[in-house]
Amino acid sequence: MNMKLVVLSAGLALLSEAAVLGAEGGQAASLRAREGRPVSTAPRSGALPAEPADEANLRIEVSAKYEELQGSTRFVVGNGSQANHVAGGDKAFAVKSSQGTGVEFKRWGFIVNVLPTVNPVNPGEVVVQLQVELSGPVKGLAGAGEGLPNAVPNLATWQFQSAVTLVKGRKTVVCSAPARVEVTVDDAKPD
Known about the structure:
Blueprint: H1 2-34, E1 57-66, E2 69-78, E3 83-97, E4 100-118, E5 125-137, E6 155-167, E7 172-175, E8 180-187
Antiparallel strand pairs: 1-2, 1-8, 3-4, 4-5, 5-6, 7-8
């Protein structure tokens, strides 16, 4: 009889603890919902909280082409975090003028800035704030000292900036003229 009482008391104590943990979890979920943050419905084990949906990593792929200029990149960024990709930089060119010889720097390359945010209502959608730039020398544009060694070329620059809603896993053309920009966003997966 005493053994049954001990087991019953232990069982009631565990149920009481589970009720307290459940109430605390419910209060936290209610607070997240009121703040407009995602609420995880994943089952909880023990006293460890489930990983919030807004801490997911996303894989972003961007490719762009404008005239002869093109670039592409693939990287991982946290949901709600900004990422910047730069390939290129400044190139130095010798410039001769009436005042002598100097150096002129011209910037060219492929630049991508993104800020992806998973839609808390539909986790299959991601709102991506996006900026893409392609710049570099393009045939047909005459530059300073053309035909001379170390001539400074004229550079073409093309930029695109927008906020778009994308479906995870689907390549989407976000700009098609005069340049083409394709973007794919998906959950980051280990290689």
